[in-house]
Amino acid sequence: MHTMWKGSISFGLVTIPIKLFAATENKDIKMRQLHKEDHSPIKYEKTCTACEKSLEQSEIIKAYEYEPNKFVELEKEDLDALSKEQTKSIEILDFVHLSEVDPIYFDRSYFIGPGENGSKPYSLLKNAMEESGKIGIAKVMIRSKQHLSVVRVYDKGLLLETIHFPDEVRNIDLVPEIPEEVELNEKELKMAIQLIEQLTTEFDPGKYQDDYREALMEAIQSKVKGEQIKVAKQQPKADVVDLMDALQASIDDTKPKKKKTTRTRKKKASSE
């Protein structure tokens, strides 16, 4: 596995050399854009809007647009100076319970591995967090961006998850027409709870697949072989308007199927 970041974790006066590894991967099927006439790949060029000249990377600088068409230039040295003190350190600021962090904050996950001579303090932090049931809240610089993050136990190791800063999470009050108080029918509520109970199970990530990605790959393979793409028939939609009818239909559909018994056969055999 490719090491994407090297540095250390510190909590109190304890410093642990560590390495970060990407914990997830994007499995999206990437499409190329082609010229319709001759099927040649499209090339993208960076062009100046004033002189319409194609630019090399060495000719491009970074700037912040503080007003329309007014920019302040930021040199690489300026950005490096700002991040220099924080680039290689994950400082745990607080320890909290995982249940206190709403999932809306979570962003990306990275496996944490011990660096050189870091096995013992790594194990110490992992075991201490495991026994306390706490997670660490930390700050880290990754690719010139400071992230708030969570350090927690995952399986037999440690995991770092970048999380959004509070001002990056939008206020739900911005969502229009969320009902404040709605008078609910008690029977409808009980049926909705019953439906939830019937659909409740232990979380098993292995039972879920990306059906669209699999279907897209099958279509691509069919095209490669010169075959027709098979289109699955759409299931007819149930014309259910009444909420009670919809709930009852859902409950009936999710009831566990009863196993057939052999009592009838046994009775027939004994009578013969």
Can you offer a commentary on this structure?
26% of the residues lie in helices and 25% in strands. The chain is an alpha+beta fold and 272 residues long. Residues 256-272 have a biased composition (Basic residues). Belongs to the prokaryotic Ku family. Keywords: DNA damage, DNA recombination, DNA repair, DNA-binding. Residues 52-180 form the Ku domain.
How much of the polypeptide forms β-strand, as a percent range? Answer: 25-35%
Assign the CATH class of the domain at 5-25 and 82-168.
Mainly Beta
- The level of helicity is 25-40%
- CA-based gyration radius: 28 Å
The CATH topology of the domain at 5-25 and 82-168: Ku70, Chain: A, Domain 2
CATH architecture of the domain at 5-25 and 82-168: Beta Barrel
Q: Secondary-structure element order, as H and E?
A: EEEEHEEHEEEHHHH
**Span from first to last CA?**
69 Å
The number of strands is: 9
- What's the total helix number? 6
Shape: extended
Structural class: alpha+beta
Largest sheet: 7 strands, mixed, barrel
- Order of strands, main sheet, comes to 1-2-6-9-8-7-5
Question: Which segments are poorly predicted (pLDDT under 50) over 5 or more consecutive residues?
Answer: none
* Mean pLDDT rating: 85
Biased composition (Basic residues): 256-272
Function: With LigD forms a non-homologous end joining (NHEJ) DNA repair enzyme, which repairs dsDNA breaks with reduced fidelity. Binds linear dsDNA with 5'- and 3'- overhangs but not closed circular dsDNA nor ssDNA. Recruits and stimulates the ligase activity of LigD.
Region (Disordered): 252-272
Organism: Pseudalkalibacillus berkeleyi
